[in-house]
Amino acid sequence: MSMPENSMDSAIERLIEQMRCTADYQNYMKQKETLKSYPELKERIEKLRELNCRMQNMPESESLYEEGEKLEQQYEELCEDTRVYDFMQAELDFCRMFQSILARITASIEFE
User: What is the DSSP letter of 110?
Assistant: First the structure.
């Protein structure tokens, strides 16, 4: 049973529009816009993400533990600023919603 491509595109467009109408997405976009006014905070967040990414690719060692503690400390310090905390929380909420949608799709089509 095949769905015509234009029907699939239409269904995807409707899903995207519905996602954009959610409170999670609206809040994420609001917080993202707020953060644009503070490029130094945005840069600090990006550096923190880079450190997190590097850590995830490091082999297990004592330095990995040290880097983890360093990352946690930097995250906590950065989130003391409510603008950063609000953005990070909004981003997390939106990502969880998005993951939930993807999980439902994956489960529904029995994709492994």
Answer: T
Alpha carbon dihedral 96, 98, 26, 21, in 10-degree steps, equals: -140
Q: Say what the pTM is.
A: 0.80
- pLDDT one-digit tens code per residue, 10-22: 999 999 999 999 9
Its sign, for the CA torsion 87, 91, 51, 40, is negative
Under DSSP, the state recorded for 59 is: P
Please give the single-letter amino acid code of residue 17: E
Q: Judge whether residue 36 has pLDDT over 80.
A: yes
HSE of 24, CA atoms in CB hemisphere, 13 A: 15
Residues with Cβ within 8 Å of residue 84, at least 6 apart in sequence: 35, 41, 44, 45, 78
Say what the pLDDT of residue 2 is: 57
